[in-house]
Design a protein that fits this description.
Elements: H1 3-12, H2 17-24, H3 28-40, H4 45-50, H5 53-61, H6 65-76, H7 78-85, H8 92-102, H9 109-123, E1 136-141, E2 146-149, E3 155-165, E4 171-176, H10 181-195, E5 201-204, E6 211-213, E7 220-221, H11 223-232, E8 235-236, H12 248-265, H13 273-288, H14 299-310, E9 323-328, E10 334-337, E11 340-343, E12 352-357, E13 361-366, E14 369-375, E15 382-384, H15 392-399, H16 402-410, H17 414-425, H18 434-441, H19 449-462
Parallel strand pairs: 1-5, 5-8, 11-15
Antiparallel strand pairs: 1-3, 2-3, 3-4, 6-7, 9-12, 10-11, 12-13, 13-14
Helix pairs in contact: 7-9, 12-13, 16-17, 16-18, 17-18, 17-19
């Protein structure tokens, strides 16, 4: 029996107030207020005792008609108070003073603030998002970085990419050099490989490399990123900007990755990106196998049981990132991509071509036709040249080498060869002496080879190393 019913039963048995107070511990005034409420609502004690406990409690504690009306009037203005409170320089104190000037019998300041706080909380209610097995994969970067020491002893900072399955909370992690599109796609391919399947929806944060234009309603997806999604048969559904609750799984995955992986690797030294990722895999596997207290299962178990069977299968061929870029053919019949120069047929000088670049290959297209391809080089300001792309005169020029010129000069005598050798030795680069050497050799067209050989002997004696001498 509830205490309220116990009080009413004692009253119905004609016990005095002192006895009821002594037995229940409830004050005399409170007991009198209960009796006044029952009399005001014209309900007998016997009828009240027949009510269920919640009904009786509500009946005795419900406000009076005046208090109810005052409360309803105040509730009708809560939205106005809430909107006004968002304006600059407006305080709750000012709002309360305006309210009291219009309603002298209204709530005091503390009760006024209490109801405003309740209303504000009700406006921030959180929708429980239900995730289905194999449905969504949330993608984000941790913001904090790891690093390794390269072959030259330079410290290289790396971004840490985190993918979290919506249903099982299974986490996959991969370290890459940057947040550029090529690295984002490479990291996504790697985490899909760790998962062993592809979810139906990818939910990235609004990375500039993946989302060309962020929008709450129609985000503009990068064409290359959309091509990647098509290759895997999935779709891209970016989280809305400034809506962290849209990607709460990603936020939680990032927090756990920082706590269980980045923190544990902070004092270790690595000497390559692959070595760093290997260390991440070891810690990640241990984390995914830990039992979750609420679920009584590990993330790995939930993933294998639910997410993986419902995920899309991976295609036979991994997606290979390809970046497209327009370029104008330079006067030296080369196009530049990523600080390296690649040759194209010289007939396209000053024309615009399309470059398709992957991690291993650079292809050049003109008007939709593939012109040529080169193995990609990462040597900055270097040149990759194919002889077939050169004009004939350039090919002939390149055919001349110091060895060939010396061999050609030797046909006209040993002193001709020695003089040509000395002429080339006088220059910083042998190529600078080619014209002078050919000028000496071509004197044979005017004089005989014997006279040319003797003249070269005298030139060597007098150290006269030019045709004018």
């Amino acid at each position: 029996m509830s205490q309220l019913k116990h009080i009413l039963r004692l009253i119905s048995q004609s016990h005095g107030l002192k006895t009821i107070v002594r037995q229940t511990g409830v004050s005399r005034n409170t007991i009198k207020s209960y009796l006044r409420i029952l009399q005001g609502k014209e309900i007998s004690i016997e009828e009240a005792l027949k009510l269920e406990d919640p009904q009786l409690s509500h009946l005795l504690r419900s406000p009076s008609k005046y208090e109810e009306q005052r409360h309803q009037d105040f509730l009708s203005r809560l939205e106005y108070f809430n909107e006004e409170g968002k304006k600059p320089h407006v305080t709750k104190q000012l709002l309360w003073e305006e309210y009291k000037s219009e309603n002298p019998q209204g709530y005091q300041y503390s009760r006024f603030c209490y109801y405003l706080q309740l209303y504000d909380r009700s406006q921030n209610a959180v929708l429980i998002r239900e995730h289905h097995p194999g449905d969504k994969l949330f993608l984000d970067f941790t913001g904090d970085k790891l690093s390794y020491i390269d072959a030259s002893g330079i410290k290289v900072d790396c971004e840490v990419f985190v993918a979290t399955m919506g249903y099982s909370n299974f986490i996959a992690v991969d370290a890459v050099h940057s947040q550029k599109l090529s690295d984002v796609l490479h990291a996504t391919v790697c985490v899909l490989g760790q998962i062993g399947g592809c979810p139906k929806v990818l939910v990235p944060d609004n990375l500039k490399s993946a989302v060309s234009k962020a929008s709450r309603y129609e985000p503009d997806i990068n064409p290359t990123y959309a091509e990647f999604a098509e290759h895997y048969g999935t779709v891209i559904f970016p989280a809305r900007p400034y809506r962290p609750k849209d990607k709460s799984r990603a936020e939680n995955g990032v927090k756990l990755a920082k706590r269980w992986i980045l923190f544990r690797l902070r004092n270790q030294t690595f000497y390559s990106l692959s070595e760093l990722n290997q260390a991440i895999r070891v810690l990640l596997d241990d984390f995914n196998r830990r039992i979750m207290k609420k679920m009584k299962k590990s993330r790995r178990e939930l993933f294998e049981l639910w997410d993986k069977p419902h995920a899309l299968p991976l295609p036979e061929k991994r997606y290979e990132f390809a970046e497209w870029k327009k370029a104008k053919v330079q006067f030296n019949y080369h196009v530049a991509y990523d600080n390296h120069h690649y040759s194209v047929p010289y007939t396209l000088i000053h024309k615009t071509v399309d470059i398709k670049a992957t991690r291993m290959l650079v292809e050049v297209y003109h008007r939709g036709n593939r012109l040529c391809s080169h193995a990609r080089s990462y040597k900055e300001q270097g040149y990759t040249t194919v002889q077939e792309h050169m004009p004939e005169r350039h090919v002939k020029y390149l055919e001349w080498t110091p060895e060939r010129i010396l061999s050609y000069a030797g046909k006209y005598g040993p002193y001709v060869k020695l003089l040509v050798q000395e002429v080339m030795n006088q220059r910083k680069f042998p190529e600078q002496a080619y014209k002078s050497c050919m000028g000496i050799i071509r004197l044979e067209n005017v004089y005989s080879a014997q006279r040319l050989n003797l003249a070269c002997r005298r030139a060597l004696d007098y150290k006269a190393y030019n045709t004018a001498a």
